[in-house]
Amino acid sequence: MIKKLFTAITGLLLVAGVSYGQKLHYGLKADLQFTSLNGRGMQGSFNPGYDAGIFLEYNITSKWGIQPEVLFSQFNNKKDDDFLTYYVNSGNSSAKSSIKLSYVSIPVLLAYKVNDLFTLNVGPQFSVLVYDNEDLLLKDKAAFKNTDYGVAAGLTLHVSQVRFYGRYTLGLGNINNIDDRYKWHSQQIQVGLGVAIK
């Protein structure tokens, strides 16, 4: 699914870019992000991480556009002290408290140009878990699902070729892979910058 989505977006923008080169921009971005995992057994506090990747900007009109991105995101979070209260049968009593999750995320954002400086962004985000460093469960079972989805909203400041971002992403999917009793949801606050190459 993620491969088809990325191929479709890339193909669409390449076709559009051939015809309307002045409307298409792309570049690199990097963010400091604070992530939180909320739910029973999770600490729920925001912890620093990062994400980095590429962005595309396609201007449909003078005011409206779309901005797909492909990002590598690092989550650093912690389980709560009461984790084994909820997962007494499957939880690993000697598990470390730190949780590290790495995702490839694809936000596809609608962009509204307020003026020459500011753009509002909102849209869905789909993420695939590509690496985890956690030992929450016995028998090396995975505590987190392989995919997540949510909605992102933020503000971009344009200064020549540089973009300064502020964004909040709310995870809507339940990423708890243990059972269906308790739901875990992610949150992200991102502050960063991008540089348009074209």
TrEMBL record:
Residue stretches making up the Outer membrane protein beta-barrel domain: 24-175
Pfam families according to UniProt: OMP_b-brl_2
InterPro entries reported for this sequence: Beta-barrel_OMP_2 (IPR025665)
Tree of life domain: Bacteria
Protein name: Outer membrane protein beta-barrel domain-containing protein
Originating organism: Chitinophaga rupis
